[in-house]
Amino acid sequence: MELSAATLNIASRRTACAVIPVYAGKRLDDIGKAADGAWDKLISRVLKRGDMRGKVGETLVLHDPAGCTAERVLLLGLGSAKSTTKRDFQKAVKALTSALAKTNSADANVHLLHVKVADADVRWMARTAASALLDSTYRYSGTPGTAPKRALKKLVFATNDRAHTRAVQSALVEATALANGTAFAKELGDLPGNICTPSYLATAARQLGQRHSAISVKVLGEAEMKRLGMNTLLAVASGSEEQAKLIVAEYNCGADNERPIVLVGKGVTFDSGGISLKPGGSMDEMKFDMCGAASVLGTLQAVAEMGLAVNLVCIIPATENLPDGKATKPGDVITSMSGKTVEILNTDAEGRLILCDALTYAERFEPDVIVDIATLTGACMVALGQFPSGLFTNFDALGRELSEAGDFTGDRAWQLPLWDEYQDLLKSNFADMANIGGRFGGAITAACFLARFAENQRWAHLDIAGTAWNSGGSKGSTGRPVPLLTEFVMQHKARRKSAKASG
Length: 503
Description:
Layout: E1 2-6, E2 18-23, H1 30-38, H2 42-48, E3 59-63, E4 72-79, H3 86-103, E5 107-110, H4 122-135, E6 154-158, H5 162-190, H6 198-211, E7 215-220, H7 222-228, H8 231-237, E8 245-252, E9 261-265, E10 267-271, H9 291-306, E11 311-321, E12 332-335, E13 341-344, H10 351-362, E14 369-374, H11 378-384, E15 389-393, H12 396-409, E16 413-415, H13 420-423, E17 433-434, H14 442-451, E18 459-463, E19 469-470, E20 476-477, H15 482-501
Parallel strand pairs: 1-6, 2-4, 2-5, 5-6, 9-11, 9-14, 10-11, 13-17, 14-18, 15-16
Antiparallel strand pairs: 3-4, 7-8, 8-11, 12-13, 15-18, 19-20
Helix pairs in contact: 3-4, 4-5, 5-9, 8-10, 9-15, 10-14, 12-15
């Protein structure tokens, strides 16, 4: 979709659809009043009839209005004109994407960026609106017969003046890169497991490196991983005929002496549970168990498209988790790359096994921070539902950065504790630790397990089991947490520099 920003004469500009805000109490702002005056009081007549009241997220489409230069007018409710919040704006934009898609409009003029939103500037409003509208145009196309025609091809955001236009254009560049990265993550997540194998993920990473000269990609095979002692990762892969891969992508556009951000994404391309076999119902959704890996690659693409001056390393342990005669069994004890031993009590707790070796491998890059991203536990979904991702960290400042990045983008995360009491639940009589901690606090004990492999690092873990995909009629990857991670990468360098300056 083509995005642009321009000063528009709302009364004379021709478009397939003009988007105009309406506030609670059926109120119009100056833009709405100008349009209403030019269009023979069209909007005020509709509001007077009570067809719309201006509640947040309320929409009304007027088709072929007489005397109007727009083929359609889409009225969008924003709530109170005095106290429009970021959440109100996000909710309204989400409603706009749905309503606009139903109009089958090829283009639209959006008159929203002049509104006043508490604690938000025009960059935030433009990025939020553009990102949501671009995201709504994603259609899975990975297998034949699955990509319907996209109607919306052009969006013009109305601006006040040249300075306003420049600020909005800058935000639209960011939004486009973010949307492309999110779409990349979605497409990888939506692909079936017989296509998106560990080798396929490795190829996708290599192709990303070919498109962006700042990205270099290295892929380790099982023989190399065995020499490194990555036995917990290989234990998960032992039941599959597909070869496991460790994908390492480096983006180096920061200073030579600048320590990198390291992102580690879980890449289980299909998870049957192994010997601890999952129930058959909804097992098809276990193709989404590589959404952590997909989000890491999506973030890498967004960062590269923006050309950010940062150093970023992305590590993806990729494998299938299947049962066969060679598969790891409950009760097996495995020595990880770190030298710590793990008693595998449940082979369906496999994500932490591949991540722990990847976290140990990440230390060789001398990272500034490490963030791992994984569809790790159903327990996280039980605790938090499907709205926020679970956030765990051993470094509170990093936790705040991630939380704030999530709040900024609407891709939110909620921090849960990593208290020492939970570590006691991982005790084993036969190894340094067990890979599960019992019935209660499953998301926390899983994070506690990972924390043991990041003790010397500023580390955080995002459990995206509840946010990485939707089930039911809207089944499909969400692309989360690409928005959160991209914003985090954008802001982290400035935050670290500010922290050092303040002592």
